[in-house]
Amino acid sequence: MLKKVIKAEWMKARHSFLPWMVILGGLFIPVVEGLIYLFRWASFVPEAGANGWDTLLSTCMGLSAGLLFPFLVILMVAFNHHVEYKANAWKRLLVIPLGRTTLYGGKWLFLLLGLLVATLIQAAGIVLVGLLLGWLKPALALQLTGLPFGFLTLYTLRFYITFFAILTIQFVLNVLINNTLVTVVVGVFAYVLSMVLVQGWAYAVYDPYALPMLIDWENATRTPMFQWMGLYKPEWLSLLYSVLIAWGGLAFFKRVPVR
Amino acid sequence: MITVENLTFSYSKGINVIDDLSFRVPEGSIFGFLGANGSGKTTTIRLMLGLCRPERGRIQVNGIDMKENPSAAYASVGALIEHPSLYGSLTAEENLFLNATYYGTAPKRIPEVLGLVGLGHVANKKTSSFSLGMKQRLGLALSLLHTPELLILDEPLNGLDPKGIAEIRDLLLRLSKEEGRTIFLSSHLLGEIESTCDTICIIDKGKHLFSGSIDALRNNMVHKKRYKIHCDRPKEACALVDGALNPCLSDEGTELLFQTEDIERLPEVVRCLTDSGIRLYTLSPMQNNLEELYLTLTN
Q: N or C end of chain B, less CB within 10 A?
């Protein structure tokens, strides 16, 4: 059942701007960071014996988490819902014998998959850009042999999970509000506010829009956080928020009348 | 096939858009659902499809209670609600393929339904470039794709040219007579309803006015028959008819229209007019077509 919805979502999205949004969103930061490295490479040469990958990975992911991906997620979700509102398709979708729960779940999973693809493209982009830089400027110590696969995998996973909360909130907002522009404005406002709060507010870690900014890219150089199974407080909170908000959104979606 | 019992619904508290509405759609029939703009036709359809929840009442489709298990009922229902829902960036074929994915319908059915609604030649054209009539046809194809037993069509003839209307009318008649499908048809085109439907339901301001066959409506309305008089001084005649005998409905040109519940009063009307020196040319009963019946009933 869910597979049918995800397949249908892909069919609707494949001729739209959404796949390009995911691909370009994933590649943007690695390419920009690669160009910065290329033109100012001397300032990125690591100390003797240090691994150049650590800085490249944390810089790319930190920039992406703080600047690009929140907007990418907000726009991706809005775009996905806009397609339905534009086609006036909700009234048709809701009389398909799949049930509202399946429809809701399928659309949510499709967006999580879109986010996963963007995250993986970003990770692959960082590796490719790093290898290219390592080949052009060997002093940057970015050779394949030095690539920390474990670090890359774990941080890609943590990066991905911290966006669950934003994606789910935006998803539910789009279910509640017909006007996608309003949901984008609300999302961007909430994110900008989080950028301010995260600078000094002690409880910013509980703000779902601030979670991606709170991943400790420097291997616990900040205040030590709760950790379990390799995931830290922001990731667990993001998972918790997304499950609770998705559930609340579903309860509403099952009852919402369609005019 | 469909049973609606004591349906009541309001968008805002205290104002019932649908008020204690009941009717039954017989299996295999083409059922016409009539009402003026804002009378609650589309809301009733939305309630029937479970898109809104009724405050009171019960809806059963194929014996399945829409409140309890709507998904089970949806499998046997094809619906076109107001404007068709089409993804403009997809072609006609892709729109149908999308629905086939949801319903698990074999893709070989797609060219069949496109041919059925006369859109076979534009299968690979993006629907954003379709005219309103073409969109209506594709909307109909979408509702027919999974070969449902029941078709619920809200204004399916909107935007169609006369040829298109005739084609869709023939298609609906064929689906009903040859394939035994039940068709619930809401439309403003009374002539079309009359030539297509065997049973009708008329609502006004969310309230049930009539349901049954058109013949039954004619029989019901026989006492409210309208007559047309062609005479030389219609205004004066109208005042005489209006004041003395029956309500005069209109006087235009050389004609006046009046309504009487008692056919025995006709000679009185004639005598009254001739005694006043009005020259009568013709006196004829209005044809009891659906439009006349509808207007009389809703007046």
A: C
Q: Cβ of B25: how many Cβ atoms within 10 Å?
A: 23
Identify the burial level of B271 via C-beta atoms within 10 angstroms of its C-beta, where 0-12 means exposed, 13-18 middle and 19 or more buried. Answer: exposed
Query: Which strand (E) or helix (H) includes residue B273?
Result: helix B266-275
* pLDDT digit string, tens, across residues B128-186: 998 888 888 899 999 999 989 999 998 888 777 888 888 888 888 888 888 888 999 99
For A143, the token pair is 């050779």
CB contact under 8 A, B50 and A94: yes
pLDDT band (50, 70, 90) for residue A259: low
Size of interface A-B (CB pairs under 8 A): 74
Q: Does A48 touch chain B (CB under 8 A)?
A: no
**Cα of A236 to nearest chain B Cα, Å:** 34
ipTM comes to 0.82
What pLDDT is attached to residue B269? Answer: 81
Q: Which residues are B153's β-sheet partners? A: B80, B185
Tell me the residue length of chain A.
259
Contact (CB<8Å) B51/A94: yes
- Is the confidence at residue A115, as pLDDT, over 90? yes
Window B:66-105, CB contacts with A under 8 Å: 71-75, 77, 79, 81, 83, 85-90, 94, 97-99, 101-104
The pLDDT value recorded for residue A220 is 46
To the nearest whole percent, how much of chain B has pLDDT over 70?
Answer: 91
Rounded distance, CA A24 to CA A30, Å? Answer: 10
CA–CA gap between residue B18 and residue B10 (Å, rounded): 7
How many whole angstroms separate alpha carbon A75 and alpha carbon A72?
5
- pTM score, whole prediction: 0.82
CA distance A114 to chain B (A): 19
Q: Sign of torsion, CA B86 B89 B93 B96?
A: negative
Q: Which helix (H) or strand (E) holds B272?
A: helix B266-275
Residues 211-270 of B with CB under 8 A from A: none
Residue with the two structure tokens 């709170």: A214
Does residue A134 contact residue A55 with C-beta atoms inside 8 Å?
no
Chain B touched by A188 (CB under 8 Å): no
Write the pLDDT tens digit of every residue in A178-222. 888 999 999 999 999 998 888 888 788 888 998 888 876 655 445
